[in-house]
Write a sequence for this structure.
RNA sequence: GGAGUUGUAGCUCAGUUGGUUAGAGCGCCUCAUUUACACUGAGGAGGUCACAGGUUCGAGUCCUGUCAACUCCACCA
């Protein structure tokens, strides 16, 4: 062995050996009880980012349970990441001077497909590099045909149950990207925006959105507002920039009498609250801003202008006409923006597919708060509050996206029937009429229907939209297990643990709980573990725009994957954010070198006649033959380290005090690490191992054996080998390398038995 | 507007149900000088546990309040 540990010579060689031997598959422990983790599928559009290195937590759990003899399945996959990927690809297109509008749907889809396949390969190689023992034979991609089939089936069931419906609502729309978003995807920014007090006949009202005034279909006040009682129900004649107009005054309790003058204009097509007021009062939805972000013909001479431009022009003109009473320049408000490009989100009326959430949310609440027989535990527990709070106030979920990259929604519209029905509900579009729209949609499990069941027409048109990515990934646990191997679902579902970042608790985890229970009747996982973010060395969030992203693979190349994994666990309470720390990485790299040199001492520097023994047998006092109570060739019974040897060792000849102590401390460490892993306190485990191996075993015990080396050899080997086994889930590569050099039974540390103590 | 997290050594962080002199890694100081390992070993300095009250025989830990940093949810017309 070389004097200094060189991870580049050790780490690359083991992964293939493990994989080819089938150790990553649960079948290696056919009798074991199932233990399942579904890998949160990384986006297939990019290499891994640093957060993915925290898959270490899952690998630790999987390796631990595998060593405990369980049928441990860690199922890998990747996510097509619909909108995210399309944005990445569009940027990529931009560099070549093209845009997505230069291609038809099929071509674009094919191009993104190829792009994703290439990245997927990179990403898979990176997971291997980090030592993650996922079962590649069961790998899935969210756009695999069998996954798509499952998702379509779910949608059809939702549709049949009345939980998926086509509705006209105000949706969050990015006019730059040309698609709508769910509420969760909108981010809000604080802005200072001028607030105009404008005159509507005898009334004055405050608004920032002058440009939507052409879509006003009422003026509203609070029903109890004494100032305006006499106007309620009246129709006012008002002067506008487009000439005289008439507008009705209504009363609605959604109006805050303390805002502005207590009077608001109601623009159902362009403001969520106004939309609701409009629904209650049966107001017309008059859209004046188009999906291109420009005012339409209803804005008269302002037609064609972008929203901001129009706002300015209108302000100037109103000022001239004396229609602006005053202006508050320092009004602070919050504006929703696209989380990708920062464009202001326009609330626009659009027919989309929505999921009715209240019932689904209720089951998801019950699954965590203990009202269902099988309860989900969230670790750290404080996230329960966030989870409940969101689910309790959930609005219906818009699952339609106007992009091509994703699963096209399996819904067809009969062109004939829709023409007839749209004439019936011509002017006003209300909730009632949008419900009516359900009837013109034919939903299937993916196959194109031959004809309309109502009129028999074969002129059917598929909804061009695709599902929100989270709708499909929300089905990932059962969708994967239903499409890998025939027995998998029955055996491995519900899964054991869902481990992911707290930032997608609502986006993803909560939706998996809802959809999982809805489809299977069972919770999708028993424990939810939420890890923190990995921040840059200065404690700032890593982001491409800040240019402070660190590539985990580079770090692994520099310090070793083992050191990286250990550094992420060591000294950091699970669930907390942590800054990437080079000193800590260095310390863990040093730790690998320490391990290596302990190995060198025990193996290369062993006295000739004490080599190649069976340490376990010696310690257990089961080998009566040799000089030290040792003969390697014959072991009376198979070694069994379910007994740490502690009590048995006490009966041994010699009974060296140091031997006894180190075995006792080893026994303690086994307990600590086992308990730590069972309770998801990973740093307790890594800290205990580091402390024991370095400061107890190496610094004290090994030093103490130097003048009685041969006698201590079995204990040295035994304690070291057991330590490696405990450490293996954390640092798989070096532990395997050293374990192989020590006397051992079995082929690999990966599937050796977890040290199991408990005899004191 | 609602909720959560964090504040402990110079830096980065542990400290689960309250219980001896508050710990680790890195850094710093002294010593060892080729030892299995210098990616080393032995020893050491360094803390008003954010602040103010309270509960308790006993509080870094529990309660109340204050300050500071960060995050999430709702969403303002």
């Amino acid at each position: 062995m070389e004097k200094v540990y060189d991870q580049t010579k050790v780490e690359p060689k083991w992964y293939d050996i493990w994989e080819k031997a089938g150790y990553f598959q649960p079948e290696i422990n056919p009798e074991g009880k199932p233990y399942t983790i579904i890998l949160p599928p990384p986006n297939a559009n990019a290499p891994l980012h640093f957060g993915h290195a925290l898959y270490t937590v899952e690998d630790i759990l999987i390796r631990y349970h595998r060593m405990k003899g369980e049928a441990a399945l860690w199922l890998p996959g990747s996510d097509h990441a619909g909108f995210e990927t399309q944005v990445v690809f569009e940027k990529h297109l931009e560099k070549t001077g093209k845009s997505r509008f230069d291609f038809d749907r099929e071509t674009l889809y094919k191009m993104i497909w190829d792009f994703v396949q290439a990245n997927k390969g990179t990403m898979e190689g990176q997971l291997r590099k980090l030592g993650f023992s996922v079962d590649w034979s069961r790998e899935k991609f969210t756009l695999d045909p069998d996954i798509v089939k499952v998702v379509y089936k779910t949608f059809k069931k939702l549709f049949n149950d009345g939980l998926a419906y086509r509705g006209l609502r105000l949706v969050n729309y990015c006019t730059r990207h040309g698609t709508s978003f769910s509420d969760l995807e909108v981010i809000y920014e604080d802005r200072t925006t001028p607030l105009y007090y404008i005159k509507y006949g005898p009334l004055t009202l405050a608004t920032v959105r002058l440009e939507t005034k052409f879509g006003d279909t009422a003026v509203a006040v609070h029903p109890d507002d004494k100032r305006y009682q006499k106007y309620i129900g009246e129709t006012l004649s008002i002067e506008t920039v487009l000439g005289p107009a008439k507008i009705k005054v209504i009363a609605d309790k959604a109006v805050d009498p303390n805002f502005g003058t207590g009077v608001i204009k109601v623009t159902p097509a362009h403001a969520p609250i106004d939309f609701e007021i409009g629904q209650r009062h049966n107001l017309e939805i008059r859209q004046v801003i188009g999906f291109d972000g420009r005012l339409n013909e209803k804005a008269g001479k302002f037609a064609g202008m972008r929203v901001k431009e129009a706002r300015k022009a209108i302000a100037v003109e109103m000022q001239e006409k004396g229609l602006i009473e005053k202006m508050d320049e320092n009004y602070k408000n919050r504006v929703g923006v696209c989380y990708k490009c920062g464009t202001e989100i326009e609330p626009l009326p659009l027919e989309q597919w929505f999921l009715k959430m209240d019932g689904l949310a209720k089951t998801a609440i019950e699954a965590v708060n203990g009202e269902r027989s099988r309860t989900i535990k969230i670790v750290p527990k404080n996230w329960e509050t966030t989870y409940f709070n969101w689910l309790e106030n959930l609005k219906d979920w818009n699952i339609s996206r106007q992009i091509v990259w994703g699963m096209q929604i399996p819904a067809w519209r009969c062109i004939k029937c829709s023409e007839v029905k749209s004439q019936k509900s011509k002017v006003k579009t209300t909730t009632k009429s949008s419900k009516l729209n359900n009837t013109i949609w034919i939903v299937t499990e993916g196959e194109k229907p031959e004809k309309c069941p109502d009129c028999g027409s074969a002129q059917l048109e598929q909804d061009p939209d695709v599902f929100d990515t989270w709708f499909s990934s929300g089905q990932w646990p059962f969708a994967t297990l239903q499409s890998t191997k025939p027995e998998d679902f029955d055996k491995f579902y519900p899964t054991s643990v869902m481990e992911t970042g707290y930032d997608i608790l609502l986006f993803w985890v909560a939706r998996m709980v809802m959809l999982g229970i809805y489809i299977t009747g069972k919770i999708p996982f028993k424990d939810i573990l939420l890890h923190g973010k990995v921040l840059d060395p200065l404690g700032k969030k890593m982001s491409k725009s800040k240019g402070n992203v660190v590539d985990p693979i580079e770090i692994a190349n520099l310090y070793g994957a083992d050191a990286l994994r250990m550094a992420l666990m060591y000294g950091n309470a699970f669930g907390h954010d942590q800054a990437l720390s080079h000193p800590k990485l260095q310390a863990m790299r040093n730790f690998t070198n320490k391990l290596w040199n302990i190995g060198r001492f025990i193996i290369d520097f062993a006295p000739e006649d004490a080599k190649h023994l069976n340490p376990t047998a010696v310690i257990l006092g089961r080998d009566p033959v040799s000089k030290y109570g040792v003969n390697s060739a014959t072991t009376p019974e198979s070694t069994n380290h379910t007994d740490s040897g502690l009590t048995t060792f006490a009966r041994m000849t010699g009974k060296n005090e140091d031997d006894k102590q180190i075995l006792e401390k080893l026994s303690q460490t086994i307990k600590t690490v086992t308990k730590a892993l069972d309770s998801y306190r990973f740093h307790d485990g890594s800290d205990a191992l580091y402390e024991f191996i370095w400061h107890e075993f190496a610094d004290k015990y090994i030093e103490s054996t130097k003048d009685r080396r041969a006698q201590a050899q079995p204990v040295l080997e035994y304690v070291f080998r057991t330590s490696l086994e405990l450490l293996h889930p954390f640092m798989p590569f070096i532990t395997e390398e050293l374990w192989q050099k020590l006397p051992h039974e079995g082929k690999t540390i990966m599937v050796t038995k977890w040290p199991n103590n408990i005899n004191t």
Q: What stands out?
A: Chain A has 24 helices and 27 strands. The radius of gyration of chain A is 33 Å. Residues 425-436, 622-654 of chain A have pLDDT under 50 and may be disordered.
